[in-house]
Design a protein that fits this description.
Layout lengths: L2 E7 L4 E7 L1 H11 L3 H18 L8 E8 L5 E6 L4 E6 L17 H5 L2 E8 L6 E6 L6 H11 L4 E9 L5 E11 L5 H13 L3 H6 L4 H8 L6 E7 L1 E2 L5 H10 L2 H10 L3 E4 L6 E4 L1 H9 L1
Parallel strand pairs: 5-11
Antiparallel strand pairs: 1-2, 1-10, 2-9, 3-4, 3-6, 4-5, 6-7, 8-9, 12-13
The protein binds zinc ion.
Zinc ion (ZN) binds next to loops.
Length: 290
């Protein structure tokens, strides 16, 4: 089952997260009928979102990761809460690109192209926190590493991976985030870097069947790791008829009036999970009376 493991090492000078996210990535793939390169991109961003979500403290806190690029995928958006629930969608789900030259991996960076990564944290304060950086490679993990350094001033290493079956379903997905807290000593950084060098890629670890706990043991080897807790992770959308009605109302009374006059029921699709909602003319009329 999908879950996130949270750990510390070197007397809390290092904090780390690792996740296995095959089921939620497969749910996202089915919901949006994504092509392999888009499945990989969405799975990576969902995995990062799930881990960054549980970094937040409040029950009502919401994290949004939004990538916009000049490539064929155009971008993707992921939203996470602080309990391991994530949802997300690509702007263009059916991008097909040849594999990258050299390593023959899915060309996520090519599908996204040049662009920006935006991180929005709604922590229940007056204004949400917004951090934005230019994409470094569009491969997502590198871009988040850059974001943590630039916007949050937290030296971090992010690794994300999605492994596909031959029939384009998701075989495995997961990732890690390792962060250095203030006061970490140089020899500890050297030891961590040596560990990171041994880890070729997350995809490789996933192919070997490594669990999040085992990934952390490799990354934090010799650094006094303590596992703090394990949280379940899932693709979960909170859309509902009431939310759809609010979205319709937001379109404006004039627009609603127009829909009623046309006398046709309308179909609304939740962009996060693809669920369809039919709103009848009677329901539209009821909305107009509010
Ligand atoms: Zn939905």
């Amino acid at each position: 089952m999908d879950h996130i493991v949270r750990a510390t090492a070197d007397n809390e000078h290092i904090r780390a997260f690792a996740a296995t996210t095959k089921d939620l990535t497969e749910t996202a793939r089915k919901s949006h009928n994504t092509s392999p390169v888009v499945t990989a991109a969405l799975g990576r961003l969902l995995t990062a979102g799930a881990m960054m979500g549980i970094m937040m403290k409040g029950d009502e806190d919401v994290l949004t990761l939004s990538i916009r690029g000049e490539g064929a995928m155009q971008g993707l958006t992921v939203t996470a809460d602080s309990k391991g629930n994530v949802k997300g969608y690509p702007l263009e789900p059916l991008v097909l690109l040849p594999p990258r030259e050299g390593d023959h991996k899915l060309d996520v960076g090519g599908a996204i192209g040049r662009g920006t990564l935006r991180v929005i944290k709604d922590l229940g304060l007056k204004e949400p926190y917004i951090g934005e950086v230019d994409l470094v490679t569009g491969e997502i993990a590198d871009d988040l590493t850059y974001y943590f350094a630039q916007s949050e001033q937290i030296p971090s290493t992010v690794g994300l991976g999605v492994l596909m079956n031959k029939n384009n379903t998701v075989a495995a997905a997961g990732g890690f985030i390792v962060q250095l807290m203030p006061g970490v000593a140089d020899p500890v950084i050297d030891a961590l870097e040596a560990n990171l060098k041994k880890v070729t890629s997350v995809t490789e670890l996933l192919a070997q069947g490594k669990t999040p706990e085992e990934m952390l043991e490799l990354l934090l080897d010799g650094l006094g790791m303590t596992v703090l807790d394990t949280s379940p992770a899932a693709f979960k959308c909170d859309c509902s008829p009431a939310r759809i009605e609010r979205a319709l109302l937001a379109a404006g009374r004039e627009e609603l009036q127009h829909m009623v006059e046309e006398g046709r029921e309308i179909e609304m699709v939740c962009s996060f999970c693809g669920k369809k909602y039919i709103v009848s003319v009677d329901e539209l009329k009821k909305l107009l009376r509010y």
